[in-house]
Amino acid sequence: MKGYVVAIFLSSIFLYYVLYCILWGTNGYWFPNEEMKSKNNVKNCFKKPAFASLLRFPQFYPFLCKADFVKVAATYGTNNFLLPYGVKTFESYFRSALSKLQSCDLFGEFDTVPCKRCVVVGNGGVLKNKTLGAKIDSYDVIIRMNNGPVLGHEEEVGKRTTFRLFYPESVFSDPSHYDPNTTAVLVVFKPQDLRWLMEILIGKKINTDGFWKKPALKLIYKQYQIRILDPYIIREAAFQLLRFPRVFPKDQKPKHPTTGIIALTLAFHICSEVHLAGFKYNFYTPDSPLHYYGNATMSLMKKNAYHNLTAEQLFLKNLIKKKMVINLTQN
């Protein structure tokens, strides 16, 4: 009888341990590490967003974490897709890069606001002379992308940046653009992007082969500021939001979402209200400014074979029409 009770007791302890690991998302350690504590402490908003119906997994955590990388990839099928939509065949690359990062936190530990108003700021020329800077800076979360500057354009686009999505060819290298309050989010499109990040982090000479233009040779952000976007977000943007085909005809180049649409998809997962600025493009006037900065014109967009900008503009128009998002640069 005594042995029977001991067996039940030990079985109970084992069951508790298994459930504990599952709930906390650990890799088998008795206590969850700090990374998992931060991930599980994210405050969920109980207010249903206007865009909730677009998402299959509204509470999906958008950044990769080294502690549960394998588990999350298997749970959401990311291990079944090649880049940029998954981690298949490049799991070791991701694990190596994640091992060098200091954090996968979404927000700071003192950020307790569950329902966040967010603005996704594109780089479109429509922002010129709009003086939306103060308005943009009033949001809880401000998401920007690539090398769209705030320095020298504060009146038009504001000063603050919460998240900046980038890839090696599009990130700042000039330290004058450094912001200690920005979280820099790497969007991985190809294996070279992970190799580049590893070389940056360990101080190795950058191999520039395999990039469509010369990547940044140094990163102005500190190690604690860097995150890696889960490829599931890119896959969701392509297949669920833009409805791109899984396989393109042989005579067509595969199309992928722009960083802007990927940033919007990120916002859908972390915000309760999403506004847009700088996403409108005028395809009918090729000499009009492409960006709110620089001298590039809309004529460059005709040469782009990697994205389907028409599909993206129609998607955004539909979102605005259904009042799922609000466009600050409508006119």
UniProtKB/TrEMBL annotation:
Keywords, sorted A to Z: Glycoprotein, Glycosyltransferase, Golgi apparatus, Membrane, Signal-anchor, Transferase, Transmembrane, Transmembrane helix
Keyword Transit peptide assigned: no
Gene Ontology CC annotation, any one: Golgi membrane
Cysteine-cysteine disulfides: C118-C271
Bilayer disposition of the protein: Single-pass type II membrane protein
EC number from the UniProt entry: 2.4.3.6
Residues passing through the membrane, by range: 6-31
Gene3D superfamilies in alphabetical order: Glycosyl transferase family 29
Catalyzed reaction equations: a beta-D-galactosyl-(1->4)-N-acetyl-beta-D-glucosaminyl derivative + CMP-N-acetyl-beta-neuraminate = an N-acetyl-alpha-neuraminyl-(2->3)-beta-D-galactosyl-(1->4)-N-acetyl-beta-D-glucosaminyl derivative + CMP + H(+); a neolactoside nLc6Cer(d18:1(4E)) + CMP-N-acetyl-beta-neuraminate = a neolactoside VI(3)-alpha-NeuNAc-nLc6Cer(d18:1(4E)) + CMP + H(+); a neolactoside nLc4Cer(d18:1(4E)) + CMP-N-acetyl-beta-neuraminate = a neolactoside IV(3)-alpha-NeuAc-nLc4Cer(d18:1(4E)) + CMP + H(+)
GO molecular function: N-acetyllactosaminide alpha-2,3-sialyltransferase activity
Pfam family, any one: Glyco_transf_29
Compartments reported by the entry: Golgi apparatus membrane
Domain of life: Eukaryota
UniProt xrefs under InterPro entries: Glyco_trans_29, Glycosyltransferase_29, GT29-like_sf, Sialyl_trans
Residue runs in coiled coils: none
Role this protein plays: Transfers the sialyl residue from CMP-N-acetyl-beta-neuraminate to the terminal galactose residue on sugar chains of glycoproteins and glycolipids. It's alpha-2,3-sialyltransferase activity is specific toward type II glycan chains (Galbeta1-4GlcNAc) on glycoproteins and glycolipids such as neolactosides nLc4Cer and nLc6Cer, whose sialyl-products serve as precursors for the Lewis X antigen. Critically involved in the synthesis of functional selectin ligands needed for neutrophil recruitment during inflammation and lymphocyte homing to the lymph nodes.
UniProt similarity note: Belongs to the glycosyltransferase 29 family.
Protein name per UniProt: Type 2 lactosamine alpha-2,3-sialyltransferase
Protein's organism: Rattus norvegicus (Rat)
